[in-house]
Structure of Glycosyltransferase:
Amino acid sequence: MANPIDLKKQDQINNQETSQIAIVIVPYLEQGHLNPLLNLSRLISSYKFPVFFLGTSTSNRHAKFRLCGWDILDFPTIQFHDLVPGSSSFVPTSVRENIGSFFTSILLLRDPIREFLQEISSRYRRTVVINDSGMSWVVQDAVSMPNTECYCFHTISVFTALSFACETTKKPLPSPVADIISELPPRENTFDSETIEYLKLQRESRNFYSVGLHNSCKEIEGIFIDLLEEQRENKQYAIGPLNPVEIGISISKKESHACFSWLDKQDPNSVIYVSFGSTTTLSNEQVNELALGLEQSGQKFIWVLREADKKGGDNIEKGFNCPLTKGYEERIKEKGCGFIEKKWAPQLEILGHVSIGGFMSHCGWNSCIESISMGVPIAAWPIHSDQPRNTVLIMKVLKIGIVVRDWEKRDELVSAVRIENAVRNLMGSTEGEEMRRRVAELSGAVSKSVMNGSSRKDMDSFVAHITR
């Protein structure tokens, strides 16, 4: 069950007309999903709505600790609520056998979410639930409650969402979009069997949505947004990027992350940032190939080298027992050519630093859109899930990146030589410079979209829809 709601406090905070409407945010419980939905909470809170952000105590702590680009204290209408898993009575035995313990623990949130929504709906004229697409099954009871409606938020790119949708609907797509999507790897090559079963359960629970929300904008994915509306036959709002597009680095952030002192000493566009997200741990052999490739490239780098988050675990500040070859870190430090961070790092602020000229990334959508927002081209190293599809978007459609790890050779070690050549190409070639120019233009268009363009208009339209 959720912790008690401080409704008296909330009533004191909200006395505008919009306080008659409560917004309940239900994120999927991994960092790549927590982050955009917390950013969405900030955006919705700016319209003076009371916002309730639901999660476990661990996921809520992670969301707040890893916040980038803004201060949670500046948005007092956002309240976090810790959910405790309920009984397993709602989860069929056949489902539990196929999806494993982590996914089962998420499904056990259906009871406490239902109880929370019942309490909230008794206090407000309307309750608006915005849930991650990966949480559709646990919010399904909301549609039977009075004055309660649900909207689905997608944390993947619209391009990837379109590719999944057309696989389901079998509706044709126009060329050349159809040609690009036909070449994408099948889901079975990018997701493990448990994840596929879990996603199938969510997809089957999604027939009550009339609207979709996306962390993207028409300047990046306009044609795909239009095509997705045709595939799903409902409205799709592109309201991103949800991360701040103009950021500064606070004194406290600089004091707590030594990387900024190092970055301040580097030339503009001279450093490549290397990070593979919160769900990837490279093998020891691959780590050392990457280390050697970065060193041999002669390019300065900042490398976030850490273990993946444990599913459902709480290793938020845990360091990494780094498997680098003996003497490597000392040599890099002596040369002054690199900075290795073994704990979580504030990625958005790093990408926004003037010295960053490239990003070697797993191509999770958060990383892609943050890189685009900050005007940084990408060296793509897809690992799993939607990442191979995002790589195609970055490479073939937007043309703001190169490939380091070829998906067709995903079972092979990426050699130091290949890494070295990729870094030199992105950071030191005419081709890389053209990508930097292109992504800088895209970044400017995206910023305008958020300030007073298509994204702002879509967000205003969505707010008008829920306050009708």
